[in-house]
């Protein structure tokens, strides 16, 4: 009889061990998913901050705007050939022509959460371009495209994302 109770105890220990390992794996997976959602939400907030900053700048008189968003710098493009879709706009040197001339990293003091300044590793940024309205080519709108990055964002030398999140937002202003 003593031998049987030892076997039963060993079987119960194996069952408890497998159950504990399964619970730990599930908790780790849930934690990873939650962290990814938090990083994506943070990137979304940074993109929104960039979009609002650039919209606010564009609604100021031209002389009061930041240099990269002055009317003389904003290129005229078409919906078919938008500058924001060109990788050089985002990877080239700001001011290197086209929409990259308006590439504006958001000042650190414009990014805050609950009154505490939080500085992301990669600052959110935006570009602006004017485009004719397809149904009325005599009027133009200003298209603002913003990008926000999660704190764990990383990229390769070509600007391709290798880790983290990037959120893109766009608005159209009729100025």
- Tally of strands: 8
Helical content band:
25-40%
Distance linking N and C termini: 90 Å
Main sheet summary: 4 strands, antiparallel
Structural class estimated from helices and strands? alpha+beta
Q: Averaged pLDDT, please?
A: 83
Q: What Rg is obtained from the alpha carbons, in whole angstroms? A: 25 Å
Contiguous helical run count: 2
**How many domains make up the coordinates?**
1
In the sheet with the most strands, the strands line up as 1-4-5-8
For this structure, the quaternary state is single chain
Spell out the helices and strands N to C: HHEEEEEEEE
Strand content: 15-25%
Shape designation: elongated
> Unreliable segments (pLDDT under 50, ≥5 consecutive)?
none
Could you please describe the fold and organization of this structure?
The structure is a single chain. The chain is of the alpha+beta class. It is built from 2 helices and 8 strands, in the order ααββββββββ. A 4-stranded antiparallel sheet has the order 1-4-5-8. Strands 2-3 form a two-stranded antiparallel sheet. The protein is elongated and about 95 Å long.
């Amino acid at each position: 009889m003593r031998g049987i109770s030892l076997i039963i105890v060993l079987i119960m220990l194996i069952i408890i061990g497998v159950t504990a390992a399964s619970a730990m794996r599930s908790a780790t997976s849930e934690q990873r998913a939650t962290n990814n959602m938090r990083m994506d939400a943070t990137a979304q907030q940074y993109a929104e901050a960039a979009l609002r900053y650039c919209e606010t700048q564009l609604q100021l008189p031209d002389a009061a705007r930041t240099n990269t968003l002055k009317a003389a710098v904003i290129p005229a493009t078409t919906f078919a050939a938008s500058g924001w879709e060109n990788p050089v706009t985002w990877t080239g040197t700001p001011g290197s022509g086209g929409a990259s001339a308006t590439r504006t990293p958001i000042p650190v003091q414009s990014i805050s959460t609950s009154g505490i300044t939080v500085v992301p590793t990669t600052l959110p940024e935006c570009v602006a371009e004017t485009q004719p309205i397809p149904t009325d080519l005599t009027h133009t709108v200003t298209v603002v495209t913003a990008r926000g990055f999660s704190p764990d964002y990383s990229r390769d030398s070509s600007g391709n994302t290798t880790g983290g999140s990037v959120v893109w937002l766009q608005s159209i202003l009729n100025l």
